[in-house]
Write a structure and sequence with these properties.
Elements: H1 12-18, E1 80-83, E2 94-99, E3 107-114, E4 117-121, H2 122-129, H3 133-143, E5 156-159, E6 167-176, E7 188-191, E8 197-200, E9 209-213, H4 215-224, E10 234-238, E11 241-245, E12 248-249, E13 254-258, E14 262-266, E15 279-280, E16 292-293, E17 298-300, E18 314-320, E19 324-326, E20 341-343, E21 349-351, H5 361-364, H6 367-377, H7 382-388, E22 394-397, E23 399-405, E24 408-410, E25 417-420, E26 423-428, E27 431-433, E28 443-446, E29 449-454, E30 457-459, E31 465-468, H8 474-477, E32 483-489, E33 492-493, E34 500-502, E35 510-516, E36 519-521, E37 525-530, E38 538-545, E39 548-552, E40 555-560, E41 578-592, E42 598-600, H9 605-612, E43 622-633, E44 639-654, E45 660-671, E46 676-681, E47 687-689
Parallel strand pairs: 8-10, 9-11, 10-13, 11-14, 12-17, 13-18, 14-19, 17-22, 18-23, 19-24, 22-25, 23-26, 24-27, 25-28, 26-29, 27-30, 28-31, 29-32, 30-33, 31-34, 32-35, 33-36, 34-37, 35-38, 36-39, 37-40, 38-41, 39-41, 40-42, 41-43, 42-44, 43-44, 44-45
Antiparallel strand pairs: 1-2, 2-5, 3-4, 3-6, 6-7, 15-16, 20-21, 45-46, 45-47
Length: about 700
Amino acid sequence: MFYSLPKPSLTLGAVVVLSGLLMGCDNASNSDNVSNNSNSSNSNNSPNNNNGSDNNNTPDNNNTSGGGDNNVVDRSKAPQKVQVPTLAFDEGSVVLVWEKPEQYSDIKDYNVYVNGQLIGSANANHDLHSPAKPYIDNFYQHIDSEDWHTKIGLHNFTVTGLTPATEYSFTVRAVYADGKESVDSETVKQQTTAKPYLIDVKDFGAKGDGATLDTAAIQSAIDACTLERYSQGCKVQLTEGIYKSGALFLHSNMTFEVAENAVLLGSADAADYPLEKGYTLYPYTSPAPLPKRPPSLLNVLEAKDQGSTHAGTFENIRIVGKGTIDGNGWTRGISAGGVDEIADEVGNKLPQYRASKEDKVHNDGILAKSQVAVAVDEGMSLTEAYKNRRSSLMTLRGIRNLYVDGLTILNPAFHGVMVLESENVVMNALSHTTFDANNADGIEFGNSQNVMVFNNFFDTGDDCVNFAAGFGAGVQEFSQKAQSGAWIFNNYFRNGHGAVVAGSHTGAWIEKIRAEDNVMYLTFVGLRMKSRPYYGGGARDVLFRDNAMVAINEQPFVFTIKYAADVNDTVPASEPAQFRDVTVKNVTIDGTSKKNSILVDGMTVAEMESAYGFAFERDAFHRGLHFENVKFKNTKATDISFLRDSQFNQVVFENVPAAWKFMQAQAIILKDSANDDVVNVSGDEVITLEAATE
């Protein structure tokens, strides 16, 4: 089951401020541009009551009916929940997203109308605004040559060419295979912002020559961008050039833009990321406080971070642009002597970064090398230094209303974009090209609520989109919030340890995730859930539907509590971690070369006590997995254990003998053209069954 979240909101005063504050995308003369034919009055001092700041980023499954009491219009077949995501609008553009109607199998596209006039289709609009679109097109035109895979739908649209401080009305219609349209969706009204004051960092002394350290100049420009100075709002701009910098710190109510042909390049010197300005991942004190980490290249952090910052400490921040943020973490070439870049499946150049580890960082690292060396010289062990003293590309903490758009993300020394304890967060049209840098996750959300990820391209050195929620007894002691509410759609996942990943830090629960209409190619794992028993919590209420997966490197689906790569000393949670209430529906998988098509594992009480020294009252098991209309081809067999109360309906396998393998499983319904069984197996017994085929 998927639950909707309460709608985020801004105060009226904050919305008025934002009308002059926020600016992001270039207003190119494209087919989605709109001439201003609005008859709206601009006398209203604030945007209307149906704006991006007052909409829920995450979807639910409710349909709406429009019209008045005397003229009810059935909109059940129209696009649902049309909205402007949080802060996804500026002086000249508005981004729209919507949910598919309940019946959508015959929908081939969506048309968008502005003030009653057709301005374009979603599919064509993605050609202009989504870095994922060329790869999705190539997938269906060339990789899916047999027309076998689930067809994804594109359900967002970027409107450009709008007039500042003007209200527009938007509706969306579904387009069917016969060319006919549905009725209009409910109308969404949005006012564009006023023009903000532009602050060029070069006016503050930044050189942008790739050699001069521009940290102080850029930070001065950021500090000058305040509402007290510029009541209409302001935007800090990095124009064309290469700006070498150490750690930078953003604040509330501002836009930070890295423009096209501009690069924010991380300094290679550890001294430019002062540890005293860094952060602690969690506030735990037992069995010992966690080590402090250095700040990232781009930060939103309290001055004296203690491991927790409530959402709303900072607010209304946009990080946008067509430029590049490069962490300068590692040398090029996956191995010594390897190529610096490759041509990918559509002919684009992808950088290749060193696949390193702690005992090789002194040879392979750039910033990573400098930071680890300093920490070791200070007396920290190599293992702890490698784990805790490398900078990520961004660490953004305690923010209410965050929008990140358009950037290319390169070469972090540690993680890519980290969003901690924040709410109402949107990640749109980013290119994460960090493969195969060690620990180089694309986006990591920790204890955050109401997030949206769409139109992204991922080629990462670790997980693509990862969710975390603390671990062990400290979760309850410090009342950490669940990582709750996420909508992930219209992305292209290439290399990465997992496309959509829950864990391994699962303590406060990771919940209410919908991942739909994505393509996954070469990814190690499609849906990956991982933890350790004593971390506690787990993942629940997850919907993974309408996704196409090809050449998965290891396993399409993983549900494991035996994750060994991230070990943290902690006081154990009261119950072992568990994954439950997960629905996988309308998904196709062709090819995985190494491991099981579906892996589910757990541990007995005795096994956990032997392995970890902790005594739990129950086994570590999972429940409520529901797979429906899922097709596997050229994969390995399943390996399912410690699973209860689950269903596999119309799950078929091609070229996979003895595809079903169960151990320690209870009340498993297996229903297809070859099976109509309830599986119960205990002890050391193993049940192996043939699967249905198409």
